[in-house]
Amino acid sequence: MVKKEYDYDNFIFHVDVNSAFLSWSAIKKLREEPGSIDLRTVPSAVGGDVKTRHGIITAKSIPAKKYGIVTGEPVVKALQKCPNLIMVNSDFNFYRECSHAFIDILHKYSPLIAQVSIDEAYMDMTGTRSMYSDLETDEYPFPICVAKKLKDEIRDTLGFTVNVGISSNKLLAKMASDFTKPDRIHTLFPDEIEQKMWPLPIGDLYGCGGSTASRLVSLGIRTIGDAAGADYEMLTGILGDNAGSYIYASANGIGSSHISDAYEEAKSYSNETTLSSDLNADTYDKDIVPILKYLSVKVSGRLRRDGVYGKTITLSVKTGNFKRHSSQMQLDNSTSEATEIYKYSKHLADKLLLGEDGLFNRGEVVRLVGVGLSKLDDGSYRQMSLFDEAFSADDKKQKLGKMTDALAEKFGKDAVIKGSLLN
């Protein structure tokens, strides 16, 4: 066998935990109930209220994916697709433990790690070849040999698997890590783009949302290769300068190789989701509540993680003609609470979609919904309401302390949401 050499200046790993929340829930169950079924081997999912079957799917096993179950859809809908779906409650306290252990192992292999979420991170392996020369073989040259050792150590010591994508920039490394799962290593270097990436559906391009993909498919751009070979002016004319430029550059494998572990202060926090079917006036009452609750919990979690509050709430949608519309409001008090975010985003959605001049009254349908908070602060200047002042300082502190302790003991300090958001 001829030893393959990867002759590039930069080597970037993207390491992604396979079905993270589901995998971590499976490990927890096996620890607590030795000999029980491994959730990763059967159709199973995390999310919602297990007893009432309400709420949103937040993670699913690979077998569940075969039934068409997707993250963010209502539990009821998922159970219609797979009546035997095993549902389990989330445990964010345990998830954080798993995530910390995962990142600790990554730091053993590279001094520069950029964690981008609880279950994925970029690693800069540039210039480390001499450190791992003893691992190289004809079958596993650098950097494959390092990725294999890293992947196997995570599996053997922590009990869950990861995919490792390898390339010379972050975009291609991310794309590679999304190839065949689980417990796999994939490369996607520039000389492999034509063979490995261009035949993929345009919707598989990282950063190409469902609406953009549908628009491009309607124009005959069905694969990433089609987008790579498309006329640049045509793409920017159809999608706008920013989106068009991104699709063209990404389809051609152009991306940044810069990795920084420095914290960058966000100017806003938002989450959005592309809907599996169009939202219209007839389905609004049934579908909008779980969508907004799901997005509000996601935004709230990120705000609380970083210890910040937002005072401007924005509700945005994309309609069937791919135009974005938004509505926003200023709050008297900045917030990071999911219940508050949901309440005001629902108010904005009712106004934007159902109002006298609302989009539904114009015959529009909605394909994407987003919720965001901006005008951020650290909470230092939040005003006290009359309700707050109704309690003495001692009474209030005691009540809040007891409530916080009880919730933290049961759910974990940063993973508690209001009960009204679980219905």
Task: Walk me through the structure.
Helix 4 (92-109) packs antiparallel against helix 5 (144-158), helix 10 packs across helix 11 and helix 12 (284-306) runs antiparallel to helix 13. This protein has helices spanning 20-32, 62-65, 75-81, 92-109, 144-158, 170-177, 193-196, 210-218, 224-228, 232-239, 241-251, 284-306, 338-354, 386-389, 393-411, and strands at 12-17, 44-46, 59-60, 86-88, 113-117, 120-124, 162-167, 185-187, 268-279, 309-319, 324-335, 366-377. Strands 5-6-1-7-8 form a five-stranded mixed beta sheet. Strands 9-12-10-11 form a four-stranded antiparallel beta sheet. The longest helix has 23 residues, at 284-306. It folds into three domains: 1-193, Alpha-Beta Plaits; 197-251, 5' to 3' exonuclease, C-terminal subdomain (DNA polymerase, domain 1), CATH 1.10.150; 268-383, 2-Layer Sandwich (Dna Ligase, domain 1). It has 15 helices and twelve strands. Residues 380-418 have low confidence and may be disordered. It is of the alpha+beta class and 423 residues long.
